[in-house]
Amino acid sequence: MVDAAGGYLTPGFIDVHSHTDNHLVCAEKLLAQGITTVLSGNCGISPVDFSRFFAEFEETGFPIHQAEQVGHSSLRAAAGQDNVYAPSSRDQLIIMKELAKKAFAEGAYGLSFGLEYVPGSPPEEVLELAQLAADAQRLISIHTRLTKLNDVDSLREALEIAPRTGARVIISHLVYMFTGDGLKRAIELINTYRQRGADVWADSGVYTAFATGAGTPVFDEKVFFEWGMSFDRLRAGTGKYAGQFLDLEKYREIRRDSPGDSLIYDAGTPDDIFTAYSLDDVMVSTDSGENPPGQGHPQSAATFPRFLRVLVKERGQLSLLEALRRCTLIPARALGLAQKGRLAEGADADLVVLDWERLREAADFPGFGNPDAPPQGVKLVFVGGKLVIKDEQRLSGVYAGKSLHVK
Ligand SMILES: [Zn+2]
Question: Where do the domains of the chain lie?
Answer without folding.
Answer: 14-208+267-348
